[in-house]
Amino acid sequence: MGTSQSRRxxxxxxxxxxxxxxxxxxxxxxALMHCEKIQDRAANFGFDWSTVEPVFAKVQEELSEVEEAxxxxxxxxxxxxxxxxxxxxxxLARHLxxxxxxxxxxxxxxxxxxxxYIEQKVAATGRDLKDCKLVELDAYWDEAKVxxxxxxxx
Length: 154
Fold this sequence. Notes:
Blueprint: H1 2-16, H2 31-44, H3 53-72, H4 75-95, H5 100-124, H6 134-147, H7 149-152
Helix pairs in contact: 2-4, 3-4, 5-6
């Protein structure tokens, strides 16, 4: 008796829930991939810009909104606007036929290599990173960009 009651309840709950074209995208996906799949689904049903130019404008708009939120000091608002910026960045990647997961992974690897270059340069002077001023670290960063350019292209 409990089993049939349980089935009826589930069926009733399913009937009351309106289906969406976004249903079925696993929430367990990494955030960037989940966002891209959701946007693909929406785009397949006409909710998309036909050219990339408005997406660039939207990125600029969202970036301005992040700055405004930051100036307000409201952390919840800042988080919301950062989320919107990331969402539109994924949309831009999608329009430019770039996988955002792959792009972020590569950029993170590039950052790591450059940062490790800075660590080596600072260690060679016998100091810790914390002992250096940002202007010096930035100079090493610029040096790393040049020194590692051919290595990081691959």
